[in-house]
Every structure is written in C-alpha cells, then in structure tokens.
Specification:
Elements lengths: L5 H17 L4 E5 L5 E6 L3 E6 L3
Antiparallel strand pairs: 1-2, 2-3
Length: about 55
C-alpha cells in the first residue's frame, strides 16, 4: 500500500512499528485521510486521536 503523500506513508510505518513493538492488539483501523489528525480504531469501540504537530 502506498500513498501519493510521502508523509502519510512515513506516519503509517511509524504507527505500525510502534503498535508492533508495544504488543498492542485489536487495532482494527487507521484513518490517515488527514495526516495532521490521525485516528486509530481500537476494537471497534475506542477511537484514539493522534495529532501531528509538524
């Protein structure tokens, strides 16, 4: 999977690496439609908002 926006590709890689390294389970979705307002969907119950500042 690739995006035309290199920043989104980099953000996805960083997020997936951290999810894996922390042993986090049940992330069912990652919304990167706005690279400054990323939302993780945890277990279809909780939305985790990650704001990128730069």
């Amino acid at each position: 999977m690739k995006s035309k926006d290199k920043d989104k590709d980099e953000a996805l890689k960083t997020i997936l690496d951290e999810i894996s390294s922390q042993g986090i389970k049940n992330i069912v979705g990652i919304d990167l439609s706005d690279k400054y307002d990323i939302v993780l969907n945890y277990d279809n119950r909780i939305k985790i908002k990650i704001e990128k500042t730069c």
